[in-house]
Amino acid sequence: MKNKYVLALSSAILVALAFHPLQLHFLAWFGLVPLLYAVDREKPSAAFRYGLFFGALFTLFSLFWIIFLQIPGNIKALMILGMILMFLYLGLYWAVGLLVANRVGVWFLPLVIAGLEWVKGLGETGFPWLSFGYTQARYPVVIQQASLYGVYGISFWLVLLNVVIFKLSQTRHWRFLIALVLVAGLPLGYGLRRMATSSPSEFTVGIVQPNIDPNLKFTRGMRGAMFNRLLDGSRACDRFARDSLGSPCDLILWPESATPVLIKSANEYQKSVFDLVDELKTPILMGSPIIDYERHEIYNGAVLAEPGRLMKQEYRKIHLVPFGEHIPFDRYIPLFRKIDLGEGDYSPGSEYTVFRSRKSSFACLVCFESIFPELARVFVRRGARLLLNITNDGWFGRISGPQQHNDMAILRAVENDVPLARSSNTGISMVVDRHGRIQATTPLFTEAHIVRRLSLGSGRTVYGLVGDVLPILALILSPLLLAAAAVTRH
User: β-strands 438-441, 430-432: how paired?
Assistant: First the structure.
């Protein structure tokens, strides 16, 4: 039995390494094989136990950086307890997946995992952070298949690849060798073919990364200095665009919570923004809190400032960070409103805003909204031809959190055949083309700016048309397969 736990531990280490910025993402291609040996021919209870052991450790090794989040010391102990519970909770998904596969056959594990990953992202507490497919974000050829069935389809493919390698290592039969060639080769062939297509560049975006310490961002002494960095970065984008590309930017992007005040209210900062926009003759999309005075609610969101002193278009963040921006379900359970973990008190928006400018239409994903594929899909189906992601990842530190968050946004471009531009307060900021190739990026904790001319995508993909059919189908099939297996045994 000890050897079985060693095998499960080995898989936890291999798969976790694929999620870190160590250029070891290929480990996900075979990282589950030791785990599959551990659960092979075991009783259902043992498969569940090894799955929970693997899942909890894999989550711990992948998300250990959460302990270094910059949060008040008085809630650090609660956070550590919450982390332990989260690791066990996320481990349960693998435990359940292996239990089901134990009953219906290991070949169905890819379907089960894809379905459970989709479930993991549902609702106010949804957290699809460690979906298996995200390990491949830095491999453009591999991730083109997301245009067919989304990131959960890539998870399906990766688990299937592991199962085929496991079977091949067991028997070395020619059938499994052919299966390996087909499973590995077909998506890669599709990826190469899809990436061979191109379209003309037609939209110039400028991105400002001001690099402000989030602990000092809203202090009175830092407001002016922070705002000047945004103004200076915007002018730097404009100069580069005019000098190198021969025309101004079509849009300049500031990060989440960029403005230190309510920018929609008349004040000196609003005047500075209007003056800048009119000077550059370029609209600026900026993260800003938004107050609805009629409803007495505050929203985290984004506001578009346009030439002519216009500030009419805005987006109110729909999917809030649980326990960070609100307490989940507090709108339905009044008792939850009395809980105080130092979180914000934001209300969720409800409108899928598509911003309209002179040259294009675009949508904004605020912070971790970028990890929810269904959100981006709705925006694109409603007319967005460019996805923007604004965030403030300074809380994540310098380890793996910023890249994990950044890489998940890459899949949104491929799934929907549109480019993506990302502005992060402290990094990572980037521009990604519609094939998921990073065109420009910035280092962490550096004041920087990016200017890039983009090819606007079609916004038409199989995934955009049908959505997450694969994981939903998996959830429908799983109980039917379990019932059939039970009947067969009796």
Answer: antiparallel
